[in-house]
Amino acid sequence: MTYMPTLTGEVITPRVDKRQVAESFSKAAGTYDSAATLQQIVAARVRLGLPDLDEGASILDMGCGTGFETRALVQRFPTADVAGLDISEGMLAYAQNQPDLKNCQWLSGDIEELPFHENRFDLVFSSLAVQWCDCFSEVLEQVKRVLKPGGRFVFSTLAAGSLHELQQAWLSVDSSPHVNQYESHTLQKQRVNASGLKVDTFCQQTETLYYPSVLHLLREMKALGANTVINSQGKGLSGRSVLKTLTKGYESYKTEKGFPASYQVVYGVLCKPDQISQSE
Ligand SMILES: C[S@@+](CC[C@H](N)C(=O)[O-])C[C@H]1O[C@@H](n2cnc3c(N)ncnc32)[C@H](O)[C@@H]1O
């Protein structure tokens, strides 16, 4: 078993197969934008927390994916120096090929090992990427390191209870993990409070999408590249009989709008204090 050295001193047993996560997102780079309904709704809400920035400010889009939200940052802050970082080479290649994003800097890297020196950015933006990391405390520590004093971390992630309908429905098939598990919002709050970052906003909101069938939901997750199940030991199930049983298990949640998929989305605006005390 390998243990990651962390800035927080916390011993983390890696639970996320990051190579698998990167591969899955790379495969989905060409289909991601057209399937990203939830991601675009969430990112629009994250943008409400953006601060005003001085001319020439430096911005990092962490887990930038296809660059869809990086574009929104470039449009909002046209004089800024914008960098996009992602662990998926396929996503980065897609973003890099966008003619209107050619002035951005693109980097392959891991949010939990940010390849930047300290005090580098005025703003770190991230939408729906942090939940793919091993340890939220480590993410916060990395962000605090690369933010300039007074800089802001404006982001979204997921909390426990996301896709609970799908998780319950899978129990009618078997007891293996088929849906990713996330930390509770309460635990996330404790991590934020311990991080030394000042809290402007840190709240949880349910976002629910509806699908005409369970197959539509599963296909969308695949088109997004969001179908990697952390800690699943590679067990995949498919086939008509599984889908039939899964759909039967999902029926009790169905409404006149269709099969619901609800996400517990966490929105945060955190600020690096101008003076960080020695103990932090
Ligand atoms: C759901 S997509 C979100 C993309 C974009 N932020 C958006 O809102 O459309 C998640 C992205 O995070 C990236 N990602 C996942 N784990 C990562 C990590 N540890 N470091 C950097 N990027 C990561 C994935 O490759 C993927 O592009």
Automatic annotation (TrEMBL):
<comment type="similarity">
    <text>Belongs to the methyltransferase superfamily.</text>
</comment>
<protein>
    <recommendedName>
        <fullName>Malonyl-[acyl-carrier protein] O-methyltransferase</fullName>
        <ecNumber>2.1.1.197</ecNumber>
    </recommendedName>
</protein>
<dbReference type="InterPro" id="IPR050602">
    <property type="entry name" value="Malonyl-ACP_OMT"/>
</dbReference>
<dbReference type="InterPro" id="IPR029063">
    <property type="entry name" value="SAM-dependent_MTases_sf"/>
</dbReference>
<dbReference type="Pfam" id="PF08241">
    <property type="entry name" value="Methyltransf_11"/>
</dbReference>
<feature type="domain" description="Methyltransferase type 11">
    <location>
        <begin position="60"/>
        <end position="155"/>
    </location>
</feature>
<comment type="function">
    <text>Converts the free carboxyl group of a malonyl-thioester to its methyl ester by transfer of a methyl group from S-adenosyl-L-methionine (SAM). It allows to synthesize pimeloyl-ACP via the fatty acid synthetic pathway.</text>
</comment>
<keyword id="KW-0949">S-adenosyl-L-methionine</keyword>
<keyword id="KW-0808">Transferase</keyword>
<dbReference type="InterPro" id="IPR013216">
    <property type="entry name" value="Methyltransf_11"/>
</dbReference>
<dbReference type="InterPro" id="IPR011814">
    <property type="entry name" value="BioC"/>
</dbReference>
<keyword id="KW-0489">Methyltransferase</keyword>
<keyword id="KW-0093">Biotin biosynthesis</keyword>
<dbReference type="GO" id="GO:0032259">
    <property type="term" value="P:methylation"/>
</dbReference>
<dbReference type="GO" id="GO:0102130">
    <property type="term" value="F:malonyl-CoA methyltransferase activity"/>
</dbReference>
<comment type="pathway">
    <text>Cofactor biosynthesis; biotin biosynthesis.</text>
</comment>
